[in-house]
């Protein structure tokens, strides 16, 4: 299975069915949040979806394209999940131009009076998605193995890393993280040749992951602000980890909004399908 929150549109348009057939059907976080805001939150506030203008802040420009192409069936929501996507760099520019400060700003919540004691994060690294969480879940569900520490091993380069689970001397799970188009291109070539050994691959278009996205704040000469990236990584690493399944809010959403974990509504809201065309081998001849 290939999972990505940013590379999907490219796979649909350029790589076609040989690749999209392997894409995880789970919606991206942006798409799920769109459903959450325009359906659950709208009903909580007794508002029609059209009365809500939903703005997403993203680390890259791919999320703008995703928002343009992702629409909800009118019978369900009657509006687009994300009305506007701004990159974090654009937000920084707006704040600089408007002399704004967020130091004293209060953070609201979708849950009204259900306030969190503190900000929590998932158990992945700062630039990745949920490989570590899925790896732990698969290890427990498939092999009854409790994995506390997920160990990444760099192979070709620091942006292609592997995670494995061994049992009785045999590798039973083999996951990978492939960041940047050079690594993705190599991955696709092996996949099409039938020489791809991975059960799950997390794919991110940007080398270095989302913190290195082109939409992030940059230096005046147009390069990634490495000092700022290191600062963000440090801040993120200091945030306490809480696994999603232990969150009372997540459990509440499954029961009140999605009508259960494996309900038809949960499958409808949290999963998607992909549009693609059959492509020839020339689709791989793109120079990066």
From TrEMBL:
InterPro entries: Cytosolic_Fe-S_CAF, Fe_hydrogenase, Fe_hydrogenase_lsu_C, Fe_hydrogenase_ssu. Residues 222-278 form the Iron hydrogenase small subunit domain. Belongs to the NARF family. This is Nuclear prelamin A recognition factor. It comes from Rhinopithecus roxellana. The gene is NARF.
């Amino acid at each position: 299975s290939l999972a990505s929150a940013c590379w999907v549109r490219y796979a649909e348009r350029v790589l076609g069915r040989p690749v999209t057939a392997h894409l995880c059907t789970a919606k991206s976080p942006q798409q799920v949040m769109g459903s959450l805001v325009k359906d659950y939150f709208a009903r909580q506030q007794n508002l029609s979806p059209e009365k809500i203008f939903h703005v997403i802040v993203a680390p890259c420009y791919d999320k703008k394209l995703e928002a343009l192409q992702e629409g909800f069936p009118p019978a369900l929501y009657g509006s687009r999940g994300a009305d506007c996507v701004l990159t974090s760099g654009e937000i920084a520019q707006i704040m600089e131009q408007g002399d704004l400060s967020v130091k004293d700003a209060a953070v609201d919540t979708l849950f009204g009076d259900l306030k969190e004691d503190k900000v929590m994060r998932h158990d992945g690294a700062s630039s990745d998605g949920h490989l570590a969480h899925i790896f732990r879940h698969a290890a427990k569900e498939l092999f009854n193995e409790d994995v506390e520490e997920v160990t990444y091993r760099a192979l070709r380069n620091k942006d292609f890393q592997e995670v494995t689970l061994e049992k009785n001397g045999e590798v039973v799970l083999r996951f990978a993280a492939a960041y940047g188009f050079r690594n993705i291109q190599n991955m696709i070539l092996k996949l099409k040749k039938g020489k791809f050994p991975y059960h799950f691959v997390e794919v991110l278009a940007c080398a270095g992951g989302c913190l290195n996205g082109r939409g992030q704040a940059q230096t005046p000469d147009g390069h990634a602000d490495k000092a700022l990236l290191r600062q963000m990584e440090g801040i993120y690493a200091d945030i306490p980890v809480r696994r999603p399944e232990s969150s009372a809010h997540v459990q509440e959403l499954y029961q009140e909004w999605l009508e259960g974990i494996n309900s038809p509504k949960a499958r409808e809201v949290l999963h998607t399908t992909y549009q693609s065309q059959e492509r020839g081998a020339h689709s791989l001849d793109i120079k990066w």
